[in-house]
Design brief:
Oligomer: single chain
Strand order of the largest sheet: 1-3-2
Low-confidence stretches: none
Protein name: Rv2175c C-terminal domain-containing protein
Shape: globular
Number of strands: 5
Pfam family, one: Rv2175c_wHTH
GO molecular function, one term: DNA binding
Strand content: 5-15%
Distance between the termini: 25 Å
Amino acid sequence: MSAQTNLEPLLIDETLLPFPDVAERLGVPVTKVHDYIGAKKLVHYVQDGKKVVPARLLGEDGLSKFVSGAITVLSDGGYDADEILAFLFTPDESLPGRPVDALHGQKAREVIRRAQAMAF
């Protein structure tokens, strides 16, 4: 069973945005979204053959520096996009909650610390 299959239940209730919608939310051209993906500042998920980004990865005022930081650290540690999404969207009782939610709040640095420990 692949990580892709495991992501479906984790992302079932998430708003999944196609790249043009991500670009609109961030106020950038679609090509910049591709740049963010390529630079490992954002990750996408393939749903029904279409590339989408969970809206929760985005900050209120653009790209979240903590989300991007966690993605970069995990990616540098050898994690692929599906594994990164699985980490971010899997509830963790010790936080409590999901790492992606903690990255938008008081526990952001703790999630980054855990990502660094996992990656190396």
